[in-house]
Structures are given as C-alpha cells and as structure tokens.
Design a protein that fits this description.
By secondary structure, the chain is mainly alpha-helical. The longest helix has 24 residues.
C-alpha cells in the first residue's frame, strides 16, 4: 500500500507574514485560522502545530510589525529629546501602515523578540542620557501610549474620514455663539490642523514635561 504524502511543512516566518497581510486586509475580527490556511494552501492542523490559537499567532503578528520600526542610528543621536522624537516618529509611521493591528496593541503588552529588543534599546539610551530608572520606564511607557492612542484615534476602524473635517467645521460654526463661544471661535483650528502637525505638537508637550522631571532629578 502506498503511503500518502502529507502537505509540505510551512515555515513559521512565512505563516506570520501571510497572517499580517490578511490582518492588514480584513482586520483582526474577520481574520481566522481557516482563512489563513486557505491562503497558505494548507490545513488548519498545520497551523496548530505551530500556534495553539489565533491569539498566540497574533502575538507573533504584533512582533512582526514592531520589527518594522526602524530607527537606524539612535546611538549616534546627541540628545535624549531627539531619541524620543525619532522613536515616536518611527513607531507612528509603522502603525500608520498597519492600522488593523492597533487593537492588538491595546489588548496585549508586546513581549516578543522585536518588542523586547526595542524596549531594551530605548531604555538603555535614556539611562545613558542620565534618566533615573523610574523616569526612563515612565517616559518609554508614556510615549508609547501616546503614539498608539493617537494612531488609534486617527487610523483606527472607527476614526473619522478626512472628508468629514469640512462638515465638522461647518457644524462648529453653526453652533449658538452665546453658548459655545469658544468652540465657534476655535472651529477652524479644531478641524484643519494637519495630522502630522497635531502629532508633533502633542509629542512636544510630552518632551517638555519630561525635561522638567529630568532636570529635577539632576538637581
């Protein structure tokens, strides 16, 4: 009797790559292991040899995304302010390319190899710039939360379309100025500031606060 050949093994890295592509396309909620198996030309049993569940696979997907956060020469950057700015910009740009991954970053703390390496590198640089360990940890966490939160608001599935800005501007301007005087006055500023400018404004505020805390720790 001739023994039937099974499907050829599938490389774990390739599985994660295809899974990320599907998540980018359809979102986390729609994504399923059956969908992934079909895309791979494999069976779900093959996937379960590598991952116990969809949730475990998503941990690897998140880590793959964090592996795309590229800041080439952090060690050569002169100031800690530039370090934080470069890291925040790189993370923001990466998340903007993968908006469907954002809910996963809310649901889990990234502890894969790329996430750990990124955290270790930034913390060491902050410590090297004279940050106490507690302030370095809080700075890393605060900046990460700001970037992820901003990205969710702007690029998440429920975020407003840029086409809605003119409608929102008109709505604010039509409010009763006797009740909403400040909102009517600020209508244009509330609705027309470019996203990148808004992102960097908030980041500047965080860095300004960290400067005061850093100077106080030195004193």
């Amino acid at each position: 009797m001739t023994q039937r050949r099974g499907r050829p093994p599938v490389d774990v890295g390739h599985i994660v790559t295809v899974a990320l592509g599907l998540v980018d396309e359809v979102g986390v909620q729609t994504f399923s292991l059956r969908m992934l198996a079909e895309a791979l030309g494999s069976g779900t049993a093959t996937l379960y040899r590598h991952f116990a569940s969809k949730d475990e696979l998503m941990v690897h997907v998140v880590d793959r995304v964090l592996g795309e956060v590229e800041v080439s020469d952090l060690e050569g950057i002169a100031t800690w302010q530039e370090v934080i700015t470069s890291v925040a910009e790189a993370l923001y740009d990466t998340l903007r390319r993968h908006p469907h991954v954002l809910p996963l970053l809310v649901a889990q703390v990234p502890v894969g190899p790329n996430g750990l390496a990124h955290r270790e590198r930034v913390l060491r640089l902050l410590l090297g710039h004279g940050f106490p360990i507690g302030l370095a940890a809080r700075a890393f966490t605060a900046v990460g939360h700001y970037v992820i939160g901003f990205a969710i608001q702007q690029f998440g599935t429920a975020s407003a379309s840029p086409d809605e800005a003119p409608q929102l501007l008109a709505f604010y301007r039509d409010l009763d100025p006797a009740v909403y005087r400040a909102t009517v006055s600020a209508a244009e500023e509330l609705t027309t500031v470019p996203l990148d400018e808004e992102f960097h404004f908030g980041l500047t505020l965080i860095i300004s606060g960290l400067e005061r805390l850093h100077d106080a720790s030195d004193a």
